[in-house]
Amino acid sequence: MPVAGQTVGIDLGTTNCCVGVWRNNRVEIITDYHGRRAIPSYVAFNETERLMGDAAMSQNAANARNTIFGAKRLIGRKFTDPAVQSNMTHWPFDVVSGPCDNPIIKAHYKGEERHFQAEEICAMILMEMKEITEAYLEKEVKNAVISVPACFNDAQRQATKCAASIAGLNVLRLINEPTAAANANGIDHRGCEKNVLIFDWGGGCLDISLLTLDDEIYEVKASAGDTSLGGEDIDNRMVDYFCIGICEQILRDSKMPKDQVHEVVLVGGSTRIPKLQSMPSAFFDGMELCKRVNPNEAVTFGATVKAALLSGVKSEKLSEILLLDVAPFSLGVESIGGRMITFIRQNNHIPCKKTLTFSVCKDILPSVLIRIFEGEHSMTKDNNFLGEFRLDGVLPLASGQPQIDVTVYVDADGTVTVSAIERSTGKEKKVTVSHDKGLRLLSGRKRGHGYGTLEMYKLSD
Asked: How far apart are CA 226 and CA 238, in angstroms?
């Protein structure tokens, strides 16, 4: 069904951003006021103004403590996350622990110390992309398909949606970056079935996905990667260990022999490094790598194709393309003894749903606490906690008697919904895992000393 308003595809990159629109039966990459197609993911503050993109990056050396970059590496993470602690050692700006263990970025703006969450910085970048696009098209942009790393967890995906919401964008879909790149590779090269490995190495993370492309059906077989390994982190030992190791993991997870991979597509600016081109080629026995798509724009291209599809654009090029993506992590609930009961396994196709029946472990229990986790470990303490809810009104039946049906559903965005029904009474409780705590914190600060509103910055620039 067509959606109201202009829709775009956005590659929200760690180091650069790019936006595209479907016009004249093709993807058109938007250029900024100076004709540039990629916008640095930088935001800077000084005594008189806020600077974005190239303007922010160019004054970094003179204003390092107030020039923010790499915010995507913080989004959806906790301050105590080892990845956050590691990144902090490389950043000149200050990051401190805030409410709910959220990392808070400090900067001085117009004589005051301001505090920002990563979602707010990413929202400023998204708003900049939105305004550049509106100036280019001379019309309002309301909707977007935004790319995210395939290995982003639920909190990171929800935080990305939060940033888009702050920027005034309605997110039609989050699309995994390698899947978007497959769109770019396949849209003009349909034909017989082939297996394609998308090797996506940008400035902030490494993503590898293996897909089967069969005319109009793009089926992801497996995805893996590292959100803390990008061009900024590369040294030879990392390249040797991570590239080959993740390629081997993808083949194991997809149960596909190496000789059945027909094509390897390089995506992301880091893949321009000769060492990173030679290694995948050598791993696949000298295979010639596919370079027919611009590695810096492939993700934007694919996100724009998906945006056109979701907004109801009619085109022979877009007809009936079906993307079958996968869950980046296993999903489950906690059972007795802190064990993880897995409902949906890593690399299951999404959307998907599974129901399991549980019994209570104690007699005369009036309510049941259901705790939701993602991860691959057998014990929940080693996995990522997503949320919890309590199902009240459980009848006092004997211990061990089945009575509660729990359902876990993952939609095409990767959003997780968990519901529970008490069989004998029909009482039901449902929760959609979201970034609500972050949203509440942001909205609660609108009149405070810190964030204010993005409109305030827009008017003062």
From this structure: 11
Quote the pLDDT of residue 247: 86
The residue from 154, 177, 233, 263 that is catalytic is: 177
Assigned fold of 331-439 = Substrate Binding Domain Of DNAk; Chain A, domain 1 (2.60.34)
Report pLDDT digits (tens) over 239-260: 555 577 888 989 999 999 999 9
- Is the domain spanning 188-292+310-326 CATH 3.30.420.40? The answer is yes
CA distance 194 to 154: 30
Per-residue pLDDT tens digits for 85-95: 989 998 999 99
pTM to 2 decimals? 0.87
The tens digit of pLDDT for each residue in 163-187 reads: 999 999 999 999 999 889 888 876 5
Structure tokens at 408: 């876990």
Closest CA to 109 of 57, 69, 51, 54: 51
By the 8 A CB rule, do 146 and 175 touch? yes
Active site residue 112: no
CA-CA-CA-CA dihedral for 109, 115, 119, 120, to nearest 10: -30
SS3 (DSSP) at 450: coil
> For residue 351, is the peptide bond before it cis, meaning its omega torsion is within 30 degrees of 0?
yes
Spatial strand order in the sheet of 349-350: 263-267, 194-201, 206-214, 217-226, 322-326, 349-350
Encode pLDDT of 37-50 as tens digits: 999 999 999 999 99
Query: Choosing from 120, 154, 200, 334, which is the catalytic residue?
Result: 200
Active site residue 430: no
Is position 138 annotated as part of the catalytic site?
A: no
Domain ranges of the chain: 188-292+310-326, 331-439
